[in-house]
Write a structure and sequence with these properties.
five-stranded parallel beta sheet; globular; binds adenosine-5'-triphosphate; 11% strand; 10 helices; 210 residues
């Protein structure tokens, strides 16, 4: 069922600038549902996905703290091609259900789903969203941004990027693209402002599908 408020799917590769764009959309009055945060909540100790994950992958998937051992899961996904699909088969429906629940608190505000892997699982999100915004930048910029984070290396960043949809696949699902390369954070904020005006039809163009 289409939601009754303008609803946006926001996506982009690791380090593209999604969270920065999401934050600006919130400043402009949007209600944000962060599917990464939902995934973390589902896979914390006692999280709703943990019984199914333990049944599927065994005790080795659970860290000493009772949460999903993400490093173990990442290693398994490299070794076993089916592991990622099995993990997603458990997580994606739970993420979708939790996202809809959180979205219900929109109180009339435009709704933004931040979905890092939207291009990889586009079907359900395409149905939930009126518009899809992709934040795009070069792989080189992604690697620079991610490698600057504590605990990351350029090589680790490249490995994650190689596992995600490529830029072409992401742009193929986009209704709008923000090119977040060689622009300042202030310029990025202006791009988001321009996008918001277009999205909500304030420049006169109808942007919400009938
Ligand atoms: P992830 O997928 O890992 O969650 P992300 O796509 O949400 O990443 P952000 O966290 O928004 O990316 O941005 C990554 C880093 O790059 C942040 O430190 C952010 O401040 C910085 N950044 C993003 N865009 C710009 C820009 N135009 N100019 C300078 N820094 C930027």
């Amino acid at each position: 069922m289409k939601p009754c408020v303008p609803t946006l799917g926001l996506t982009g590769g690791i380090g593209s600038g999604k969270s920065t764009v999401a934050q600006r959309l919130v400043e402009l009055g949007a209600h944000l549902v962060d599917t990464d945060a939902i995934a973390r909540d589902l896979t914390r100790a006692g999280g709703a996905a943990m019984p199914a994950l333990a049944a599927e992958f065994g005790a080795a998937a659970i860290g000493a703290d009772g949460a999903l051992d993400r490093a173990w899961m990442r290693r398994l996904a490299f070794e076993d091609r089916t592991a990622k699909a099995r993990l997603e088969a458990i997580l994606h429906p739970l993420i979708g259900a939790a996202a809809l629940q959180l979205a219900a608190a929109h109180r009339g505000r435009p709704l933004v789903y931040d979905v890092p892997l939207l291009a990889e699982s586009r079907g359900p999100w395409r149905a939930r969203c009126d518009r899809i915004l992709v934040v795009d930048c070069t792989v080189r910029t992604q690697v620079e941004r991610v490698a600057a984070r504590p605990g990351w290396t350029a090589e680790a960043a490249r490995r994650v990027i190689a596992q995600q949809a490529d830029r072409g696949a992401r742009r193929a699902v986009a209704d709008a693209v923000i090119h977040n390369d060689a622009i300042s954070l202030a310029e990025l904020a202006s791009e988001v402002d321009r996008f918001m005006a277009w999205w909500l039809g304030r420049d006169g163009r109808p942007v919400v599908a009938p």
